[in-house]
Design the sequence.
């Protein structure tokens, strides 16, 4: 059953079309990744799912209900632009945010105490956010997002600005939530994070959803058309290769995407003539490469997806 | 709209402020500052403000100098036996404040004499000398004409004016001066109140943007609910503060007469009896008891004025990222409210003029100008009703505009919007 159902939504701001006829479904109990460069329309889409913005056309169903204040309660949302009241005590703040999500004060208190305990943060209860370190307040921010025990969790660029420890913590929380049958949607412009965590993905470019589905199936459908090559010696032979795209290149490493059906053994032979080969491996393409293949090399600025 | 969410927002806004140190300090200090201010005014009004100056009189008439010395023996003294050059030197050296040469023609032909002085007298000093001279010359001329005592009495008559106000309940003692002053002060309080609490609301909106907490809130509450909650939260703070102050004032006005009498008693010992009784009459303080109806009007007009202006303040807060960027939009709020403030003096002087009636009904100025009129004159009921209705309509109009700006503005970061952008947001 689809928990989030996005049906042909579009949204313009003045003359800019931020989201253009986007559709996708998020299934229950899965981690769904929204991918694409900055400015592709991910945040606008997420805001519409959260009923902060409304689409010009199209519809969004959350658990079968049209997006509304009612569906807002089903979602825990951590925006990219996130923060807390600096001059408010941790506990009061969490109570306020959790009650705004429709939880009564008794349940809210219990849930907050549970999570504060889980994060070893019970001692901070009476402290103001301004007294906490950045890492500590990030933990409080997680609690604010999840304390009202929603079915759906939406994180917009969750790892940007997180310190490495909290990044790990968040990954663990996301996986744990999924294992408890919750649904998670997050957006990122960093492809490798998606590869590690997501079950399903939707690729965004210029306001359009260009590709969506199960991550493993998508990758499999591209076949093992990529070579991971490790070598020692002069790498200039790589420039002689035709009909390939070299995605990742350093002095002794290259990820070579083969664009036609040419024999990969020929590439190996050429390589052996010029350098000492340490590793030659046929693999599925990376998500970055799938993204480039899907939208076409000319349609993206490469630095945006790194 | 969910009333429960508005209530949650209101409660947070109210409690976090009321518990803050700055709230307690401001609430306690404002009346103290007010009392200190009143105390200074009372003190000034009963204490001698003039520095005594010494004027030499070079009298060629032989009669005027006696009369002047009789009028004020510390100020005037006889220098008729000295040379003008000598007096000039003394004035230049600062040993003498000034001198006047009086010739017969001053009495006979009403010629104006000349005061030669060091130039540090001030207007009240000059007019005091002038009136002393007038009196001395008049007395001398009356004496020369052998005028009878009856006619002298006519000249001494000072006709006053007692005013009595006719109201439904009958005649009451008129207190126009106090009523006008009260009207002005109440208008002033509303002016400051709107500015102070409006700015508080604006900062509170901006704070949510700079803390980046706003989008989290926006995923739980509608912008209009957030706005109503914050607006009424700040309003509750204002009413709490005003409530405390009004209680304080009521207590003070009961205690005022005895306290002021004490101050006056202490001062009287150092003053000539006559001057003291003229300067201050403790019974005057009975007039300082304010009718409760005026407080109710005050709260009502503050309430409506606050709603109108704070909706504007909130919209400005929503449109910008930081307080510096509010500058370009401040004239929208500042201009009408300052006009109301400046016109308030006119309203006080002539509360029934057509200008006063207009500004007391025009919704952007009426919160300030109507309360001044209500306090100082009897305003026809229809004018009060029309002004209240217009303010309510204006509030909903501005609220509608502000909510549209707010809805878009709360998600805008980083760029400073122009008026054109705002117009676009409203249409969106």
Sequence:
């Amino acid at each position: 059953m689809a928990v989030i159902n996005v049906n042909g939504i579009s949204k313009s701001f003045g003359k800019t079309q931020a989201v253009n006829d986007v559709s996708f479904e998020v299934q229950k109990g899965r981690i769904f990744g929204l991918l694409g460069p900055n400015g592709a329309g991910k945040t606008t889409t997420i805001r519409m799912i959260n009923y902060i913005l409304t689409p010009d056309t199209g519809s969004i169903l959350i658990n079968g209900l049209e997006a509304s204040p009612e569906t807002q309660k089903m979602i825990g949302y951590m925006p990219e632009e996130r923060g807390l009241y600096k001059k408010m005590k941790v506990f009061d703040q969490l109570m306020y945010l959790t009650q705004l999500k429709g939880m009564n004060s008794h349940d809210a208190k219990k849930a907050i105490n549970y999570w504060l305990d889980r994060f070893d943060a019970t001692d901070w209860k009476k402290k103001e956010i301004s007294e906490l370190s950045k890492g500590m307040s990030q933990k409080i921010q997680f609690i604010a997002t999840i304390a009202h025990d929603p079915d759906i969790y939406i994180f917009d660029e969750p790892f940007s600005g997180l310190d490495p420890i909290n990044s790990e913590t968040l990954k663990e929380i996301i996986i744990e939530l999924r294992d408890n049958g919750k649904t998670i949607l997050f957006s990122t412009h960093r492809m490798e994070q998606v590869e590690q965590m997501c079950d399903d993905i939707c690729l965004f470019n210029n306001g359009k959803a260009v590709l969506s589905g199960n991550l493993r199936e998508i990758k499999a459908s591209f076949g093992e058309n990529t070579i991971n090559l490790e070598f020692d010696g002069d790498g200039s032979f790589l420039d002689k290769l035709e009909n390939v795209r070299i995605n990742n290149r350093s002095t002794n490493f290259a990820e070579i995407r083969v664009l036609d059906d040419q024999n990969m053994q020929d590439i190996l032979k050429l390589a052996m003539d010029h350098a000492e080969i340490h590793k030659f491996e046929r693999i599925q393409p990376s998500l970055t490469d799938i993204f480039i293949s899907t939208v076409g090399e000319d349609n993206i600025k490469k630095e945006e997806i790194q | 709209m969910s009333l429960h969410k508005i209530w949650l927002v209101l409660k947070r806004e109210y409690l976090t402020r009321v518990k803050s140190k700055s709230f307690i300090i401001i609430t306690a200090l404002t009346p103290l500052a007010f009392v200190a201010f009143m105390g200074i005014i009372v003190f000034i009004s009963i204490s001698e403000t003039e520095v005594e100056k010494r004027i030499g009189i070079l009298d060629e008439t032989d009669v005027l100098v006696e009369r002047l010395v009789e009028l004020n023996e510390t100020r005037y003294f006889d220098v008729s036996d000295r040379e003008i050059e000598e007096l000039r030197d003394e004035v230049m050296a600062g040993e003498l404040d000034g001198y006047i040469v009086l010739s017969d023609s001053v009495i006979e032909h009403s010629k104006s004499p000349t005061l030669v002085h060091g130039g540090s007298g001030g207007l009240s000093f000059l007019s005091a000398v002038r009136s002393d001279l007038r009196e001395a010359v008049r007395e001398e001329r009356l004496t020369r004409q052998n005028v009878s005592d009856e006619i002298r009495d006519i000249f001494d008559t000072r006709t006053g004016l007692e005013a009595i106000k006719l109201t439904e309940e009958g005649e009451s003692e008129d207190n126009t001066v106090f009523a006008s002053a009260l009207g002005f002060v109440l208008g002033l309080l509303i002016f400051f109140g709107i500015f102070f609490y409006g700015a508080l609301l604006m900062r509170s909106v901006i704070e949510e943007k700079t803390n980046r907490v706003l989008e989290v809130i926006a995923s739980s509450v509608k912008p209009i609910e957030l706005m109503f909650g914050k607006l009424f939260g700040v309003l509750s703070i204002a009413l709490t503060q005003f409530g405390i102050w009004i209680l304080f004032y009521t207590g003070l006005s009961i205690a005022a007469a005895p306290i002021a009498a004490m101050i006056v008693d202490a001062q009287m010992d150092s003053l000539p009896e006559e001057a003291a009784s003229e300067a201050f009459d403790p019974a005057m303080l009975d007039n300082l008891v304010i009718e409760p109806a005026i407080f109710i009007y005050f709260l009502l007009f503050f309430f409506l004025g606050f709603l109108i202006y704070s909706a504007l303040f909130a919209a400005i807060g929503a449109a910008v990222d930081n307080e510096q960027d509010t500058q370009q939009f401040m004239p929208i709020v500042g201009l009408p409210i300052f006009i109301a403030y400046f016109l308030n003096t006119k309203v006080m002087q002539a509360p029934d003029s057509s200008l006063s009636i207009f500004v007391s009904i025009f919704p952007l100025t009426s919160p300030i100008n109507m309360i001044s009129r209500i306090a100082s004159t009897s305003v026809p009921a229809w004018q009060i009703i029309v002004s209240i209705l217009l303010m309510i309509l204006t509030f909903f109009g501005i609220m509608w505009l502000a909510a549209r700006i707010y809805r878009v503005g709360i998600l805008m970061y980083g760029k400073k919007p122009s008026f054109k952008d705002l117009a676009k947001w409203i249409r969106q």
